[in-house]
Amino acid sequence: MSHWLKLRPSAANSDGYTPEPFIAGEKPRILPMDTSVYDSPYSDPEEIKDRKVFLKRDMLLIDEVDLGAGNFGCVKKGVYKMKRRQIDVAIKMLKLQSDSEKAIRDEMMKEAEIMHQLDNPYIVRMIGLCEAECLMLVMEIASAGPLNKFLPSKKDEVSISNVAELMHQVSLGMKYLEEHNFVHRDLAARNVLLVNQHYAKISDFGLSKALAVDNNYYTVMSLIRIEMETIFITFLIYTVYIIHM
């Protein structure tokens, strides 16, 4: 396939697992399907045992720093107090001011239900929900922000190998979703968040849909049937196309 990047086996980036771009005359190597590079916040068995969808309010510290805003309200930086450590988190905060916003709340609850089932290094993990001063969705933080804003601001610093690295990680996240019978129906650069320049995570699961194990298609608005075998999810960075499901 002409759009796939060929990679050089002899060199590696600072993360130790993504090869540098291919050099003419050298034998290419496919990127390893390695999803064990980063630990889950719940890698500790004690944390896994007590994992719940709803969190107590006293487990959260909320900063005044705004990370962003959307239809639901705002996103603030915070700290989640686990049994043995504390981790930085992003907190989606929804304040219901009218009955018309109930649909937004329902969408947020649906997103939480989906995200709580997922545990992969390249997908933003949902820590839990908290209902206190408002409804709060607590997630892993990706402090470098969305890819669509990061790339234009760093266009002189991002190499082709860096682009390939991020695309590889997004493809691993999408592979995980497919293996667990999920389709992300709004994959775009704005929904890929960066922990840092070399680490991407897929986010925003409000439009995701769980599939029954024996289904091989899903229906959009009960009208459009898309066969799973023909879905091509395209991730565009600097006119480089990748990800074939």
UniProtKB/TrEMBL annotation:
Gene3D superfamilies: Phosphorylase Kinase, domain 1, Transferase(Phosphotransferase) domain 1. It comes from the Eukaryota. Residues 61-245 form the Protein kinase domain. Coiled coil: none annotated. SUPFAM superfamilies: Protein kinase-like (PK-like) (SSF56112). GO terms for molecular function: ATP binding; protein tyrosine kinase activity. Keywords: ATP-binding, Kinase, Nucleotide-binding, Transferase, Tyrosine-protein kinase. ATP binds at residue 92. This is Protein kinase domain-containing protein. The keyword Oxidoreductase does not apply. InterPro entries: Kinase-like_dom_sf, Non-receptor_tyrosine_kinases, Prot_kinase_dom, Protein_kinase_ATP_BS, Ser-Thr/Tyr_kinase_cat_dom, Tyr_kinase_AS, Tyr_kinase_cat_dom.
